[in-house]
Amino acid sequence: MKVGNGSFNKDEDEANKLAVSLVNVAKEAGLRCSAVLTDMNQVLGWNAGHSLEILEAIEYLKNNKKNKRLENITNELISVLLVMIKDISKEEALKLIQDVIDNGKAAEKFEHMVSALGGPKDILTSFNNKVPKAPYREDIFGFSNGIVKSINTRRLGMLLIELGGGRKQINDKIDFSVGLEKVINVGSQVDSSTPLLTLHAKTKESVDNIRKQIKECFEITTTAELELKTIYKTIT
After folding, report:
1. What is the pLDDT of residue 223?
2. Which helix (H) or strand (E) element contains residue 199?
3. CA–CA distance, 170 with 182 (Å, rounded to integer)
4. What is the pLDDT of residue 43?
5. How far apart are CA 169 and CA 22, in angstroms?
6. Dist. CA 40–CA 199, nearest whole Å
7. pLDDT for position 46
8. Among 153, 145, 147, which Cα is nearest to 225's?
9. Which pLDDT score, from 0 to 100, does residue 186 have?
10. DSSP three-state, residue 80
């Protein structure tokens, strides 16, 4: 259950009420169920956009490069599920997760899934040639120096749709190549030489139309006391 400005649940209380309701309905239907409340006040990994997220997932599964926030939330979700279905401890569940990352079985299973859905059979080795890439890229810099206090995550998502990365109408065609790469985290120190993110777009003109709005999604202050959460709670 997502919590934050990038979610439909703006605060923890709202998310908690919905999570409790969903868990109760599942239990009344005879199902084992838990809900994990996780943060959505910033991009979960480093990237947003179809191709960029696939590339990040492949790097993650191949154990080459893992975003810590993404790893924490992924491990929490999987371990909660494993504890329910295998009746093991959380520590044992986390070890099982790490084992399949280390021995390559998680990446292998992902490749089988892609193939079963009609994708390349060798996505783990051919992804650089098979995943669509945007023809134009540009680093976006902030208006000022300081610390990233907050990010308007939902607005970033809407601007990604403006680039073609999502649908406004049901018949709209999605541009899988566009996206936001290396989005900076809340709490990061920035100056005039620090990109807030790298935009992947079809044309420079499409970036010109939203560049200022992208910058406005990042609140930068000179002093900020930040209590950053990734996982709020688990409801069982």
Report:
1. 80
2. strand 195-201
3. 29
4. 94
5. 29
6. 20
7. 96
8. 147
9. 94
10. helix
Length reported for the chain: 236
The Cα–Cα gap between 233 and 37 comes to 5
Q: Which two tokens stand for residue 139?
A: 């680093």
Cα–Cα distance measured from residue 136 to residue 8, given in angstroms and rounded to the nearest whole number: 31
Q: What is the C-alpha separation between 173 and 111, in angstroms, rounded? A: 25
Provide the pLDDT for residue 231. 95
Q: Give the C-alpha distances (Å, rounded to integers) separating 191 from 139, 140, 181, 233.
A: 13, 12, 18, 34
Q: Which residues contact 32 (CB under 8 A, 6 or more apart)?
A: 26, 84, 85
Query: Which pairing describes strands 195-201 and 179-181: parallel, antiparallel, or unpaired?
Result: antiparallel
CA dihedral for 197, 199, 205, 210, sign (positive or negative):
negative
CATH number for 134-221 (one of 3.30.930.10, 3.90.1170.30, 3.30.70.60, 3.30.70.380): it is 3.90.1170.30
Element holding 221 (H helix, E strand): strand 218-221
Give me the DSSP letters along 83-119.
Answer: HHHH---HHHHHHHHHHHHHTSHHHHHHHHHHHHTTS
- Strands 146-151 and 179-181 turn out to be unpaired
CA angle, residues 107, 122, 72, in degrees to nearest 5: 20
Q: Which residues of the chain have pLDDT under 50?
A: none
DSSP label of 228: -
State pTM to two decimals: 0.91
Instruction: Find tokens 């990109």 and name the residue.
Output: 195
Tokens representing residue 32 in the block: 């084992």
Rounded Cα distance between 220 and 218, Å, is: 6
C-alpha count within 13 angstroms, C-beta hemisphere, residue 133:
8
